[in-house]
Each structure stands twice: as C-alpha cells, then as structure tokens.
Amino acid sequence: MSELATSKMMEAIESLWSRMLGIEARPNASLVVGRLRPSLMTGCVQISGAWRGAVMVECSGGLARRVAAILFGADVREISNDQINDALGELTNMIGGNIMALLPEPSQLSMPAVSEGADALFHSPGSRPMAQMSFLCEGKPFQITVLESQP
C-alpha cells in the first residue's frame, strides 16, 4: 500500500473519531506490535468485491467502554457488555466503510463481528497485513489493521 493511501486512511480515521465521538485520535509514533494487552477487544469487518480483505480495530476494554458511553450518551459505569460490543461493531463498520471508499470498486462490507479477550483472534486465511496504523485516544492505544486477501 502506498504511503499516500495509508496517510489518507489515517486522516479518515482521525476525522471519524472527531466527528462521531467528539474526541481526538492522534497517530501513535510507536506502532503497537502484536496484540494490545491486557483487556483486548477486536472488531472486524470483511470487504469483498473488486478488492478482498478485512479491517480489524483493536483496543482495550476501557477504551471500548468509553466509546460506548459516548455513543449511547450514558455514564461509563452504566454501559452493558452488549452496548460495548454494539459500539465497537459500529465503530469498526464505519472505519471499514471509510477505508473501503479508498479501495477499488465495487466492494461490499460485511456485518461487523466483535471478540473480547487477548486469546480471541480473528484470522483471515490467505491474507497479509496491508497496513497497520496505531493511534492514541485519551492516552489509550488502539490499532487498525487492514488485511488483503491473496488470490
């Protein structure tokens, strides 16, 4: 993936967080290698069509809870696990849609899936990381990985 395309993806993600959540997501100069710890949550959407692959959003449970509180207009202590999963799924869907807009058309986005726990892992057989972007939001890291399926 070109540096320009990665830069456009990062801009789209920063803008989305600002518009949708009203909080800042800043690029994190030190890319998180491997899986975030200790309480990892992962959202994933598949892209099919002219381009095939997946977009994964990884963050801590605490950041996912904060996102859910903003989206549901509630206190973080009142947010249920279902609301956290719904919020991370919606955020993953919106990030995937923004990234899909930068890829060859026509393409379709799957429904998002969410997993919880450092041992839970989405695996896309026959794919390779196309781009990894790391951000900080309110001091908490999150990572976006774009996987491209191999023909």
Number of domains: 1
Average per-residue pLDDT, rounded, comes to: 86
Characterize the biggest β-sheet.
Answer: 7 strands, antiparallel
What would you call the shape?
globular
Query: Distance N terminus to C terminus?
Result: 16 Å
Task: Write a structural description.
Helix content is 34%, strand content 32%. The relative contact order is 0.26. The radius of gyration is 15 Å and the shape is globular. It has one domain (3-28, 37-149): CheC-like (Chemotaxis protein chec). The protein has 3 helices and 7 strands; from the N terminus they run αβββααββββ. It is α+β, with helices and mostly antiparallel strands and 151 residues long. The chain has helices at residues 3-21, 61-72, 81-100, and strands at 26-27, 40-49, 53-60, 107-109, 113-116, 127-137, 140-149. A hairpin with a 2-residue loop joins strand 6 (127-137) and strand 7 (140-149). Strands 1, 2, 3, 4, 5, 6 and 7 form a 7-stranded antiparallel sheet that branches. Helix 1 packs across helix 3 (81-100) and helix 2 (61-72) packs across helix 3.
